[in-house]
Amino acid sequence: MTAQETAPYASSTPLKKIRTVHLAEIKKNGGHFSMLTAYDQYTAEIFDAAGIEMLLIGDSAANNVMGYETTLPITMDEMVVFAKAVAAGAKHSFLVCDLPFGSYEISPQQAVESSIRLMKETGIHAVKIECDERHAETVAAIAAAGIPVLAHIGFTPQSEHALGGYRVQGRGEEAAAAMIHTAKTLEEAGAFCVLMEMVPAEVARRVDEALTVPTIGIGAGNGTTGQVLVWQDMLGLRSGRMPKFVKQYAQLRPIIEQAAQAYKTDVASGAFPAPEHSFD
C-alpha cells in the first residue's frame, strides 16, 4: 500500500502533481494554498501525502538543521544535498529551493548558473531568490532560462544586517507603495509568484490585489494567496520563543524527548531488546 492509502491524514481524493498553472488557478479562483519547509525525505513524504501544495527547501536549513545562527553560511553544495533528499520523498508537491547567499548576487549569469545547477542535480521545480526591483534583470534572466522564479520581498533574512535586524517591512504609505511597485516590477520581470515576509497584513493584501500572479505570506496576514511556515516551528520541534506569526499545530519536542528517555531506561534496565526484538 502507498503512503497515501495508509496515512490517516491523507485525502481520499487522489493527489495531482502541482504545477505553476495550478497555483495560478488557485489565485484566479480566489482560493488559498499551503507551503511548508522540508529538508529531508521523510518530512517531504509526510507533507506531500497530506496534500501540501508547495514545499520549500529553504536556506533556513542553516538555522533549523545545521545549527548556524543565520542563513548566511549555508552553501550551494549543502542546498543541493537537502534538495535531493526532498525531491526523493515528494511526488506531488511543487518544490522550490532557495538560492543561498553568495550564489546569485554577483551577476544575472551567476544566478542562472546556480539555478541550472539546482534544477539539474536535485529534481526541484523552481528557485526562490531574495530580491527587490534592483534584481529584476536577474529574475528575468533566470525565467528566460526556463526556470520558474519565486521572488521573496519584505524582510529578507540574507540581508538582515543591511535591514537592521528582524524588522517588519513596508510600514507607512510610502513604504507600502514602494513594496507594491517592487512586487509589480518582479512580476513583470517573470516571477511566477511573490513571497512576502514580515509585512503588515493590509500592505500584503494590497500587493496581492495588485498582482496577477499568486502571493505567499509568512507574517503577512491572511490576504495572500498562500501561506508558508518553517515546519520545525509549526510542529513544535524547535524550543524557545516563537515568532508572532507562527501557529503551532503540534508539540513534537516533548514527545520525542519522552520517547528517547523511555528508550534509555529500557536499555539501562535490559528491557530492550526483548526476545521479540532478537533473532534465534
UniProtKB/TrEMBL annotation:
Keyword Nucleotide-binding: no
Cofactor binding annotation: Binds 1 Mg(2+) ion per subunit.
GO biological process entries: methylation; pantothenate biosynthetic process
Localization in the cell: Cytoplasm
Enzyme kind, highest EC tier: transferase
Main location, first listed in the record: cytoplasm
Residues the record lists as binding Mg(2+): D59, D98, E130
Cofactor(s) essential for the protein: Mg(2+)
Alphabetically ordered keywords of this record: Cytoplasm, Magnesium, Metal-binding, Methyltransferase, Pantothenate biosynthesis, Transferase
MF (Gene Ontology): 3-methyl-2-oxobutanoate hydroxymethyltransferase activity; magnesium ion binding; methyltransferase activity
Pathway: Cofactor biosynthesis; (R)-pantothenate biosynthesis; (R)-pantoate from 3-methyl-2-oxobutanoate: step 1/2
Binding site for 3-methyl-2-oxobutanoate: D59, S60, D98, K128
Coiled coil (residue ranges): none
GO cellular component: cytoplasm
Pfam families the record matches: Pantoate_transf
TM annotation in the entry: none
Domain of life: Bacteria
Entry's EC annotation: 2.1.2.11
Xref: InterPro entries: Pantoate_hydroxy_MeTrfase, Pyrv/PenolPyrv_kinase-like_dom, Pyrv_kinase-like_dom_sf
Record-annotated active site: E197
Reactions listed under catalytic activity: (6R)-5,10-methylene-5,6,7,8-tetrahydrofolate + 3-methyl-2-oxobutanoate + H2O = 2-dehydropantoate + (6S)-5,6,7,8-tetrahydrofolate
Similarity comment: family membership: Belongs to the PanB family.
Purpose of the protein: Catalyzes the reversible reaction in which hydroxymethyl group from 5,10-methylenetetrahydrofolate is transferred onto alpha-ketoisovalerate to form ketopantoate.
Subunit structure: Homodecamer; pentamer of dimers.
Protein name per UniProt: 3-methyl-2-oxobutanoate hydroxymethyltransferase
The organism of origin for this protein: Neomicrococcus aestuarii
